[in-house]
Amino acid sequence: MKKLIPFIILIILASCKTTKPTATDDVAAIRSILDQQQKAWSDNDLEGFMAGYWQSDELTYYSRGKITKGWHTTLANYKRNYPTKDETGELNFEIANISQINADAYWVMGSYFLTRDAGDANGTFMIIFKRINGEWKIIGDSSC
């Protein structure tokens, strides 16, 4: 019995081992967030769209030659510029590249396509995702 106890402890410890997410897991999680954002935007749910962003005053958004700081400021700008479904329309992303920066950060490059009653709009973006408290969040966005 004394010889069996260390073996049982080893099995218990091995079963408690947590696995670290792989790059494949990370990319899948990031793609899932982007899919959720497309749906939220297309439903004119700007708060839902912003759920993919880091809710911090340090969130950085760059567009039209201007830097905007802060989650609340970015949301307010979206609400002002896209007040109705006519302006938000339907959003689709075309992802060109997702590349790892380090174990807790990725950059994503792609294009966006807005099909809407107010007139279609298309452009490109580069966003930075960072793992914060175990969750992927956009900490920087440059769109044009």
Give structural notes.
- The chain is an alpha+beta fold.
- The protein has one domain: Nuclear Transport Factor 2, Chain: A (Roll).
- Helices cover 37% and strands 37% of the residues.
- The chain is built from 5 helices and 6 strands; from the N terminus they run H-H-H-E-E-H-H-E-E-E-E.
- The protein has helices at 4-16, 23-42, 46-50, 71-81, 85-88, and strands spanning 60-63, 66-69, 90-102, 105-115, 121-132, 135-143.
- The chain has a 6-stranded mixed beta sheet, with helices on one face.
- Strand 4 and strand 5 form a beta hairpin.
- The longest helix is centred in the first third of the chain and has 20 residues, at 23-42.
- The protein is elongated, with a radius of gyration of 20 Å.
- The model has no long low-confidence stretch (mean pLDDT 92).
List the helices and strands and how they pair.
Layout (H helix, E strand, L loop, with lengths): L3 H13 L6 H20 L3 H5 L9 E4 L2 E4 L1 H11 L3 H4 L1 E13 L2 E11 L5 E12 L2 E9 L1
Parallel strand pairs: 1-6
Antiparallel strand pairs: 1-2, 3-4, 4-5, 5-6
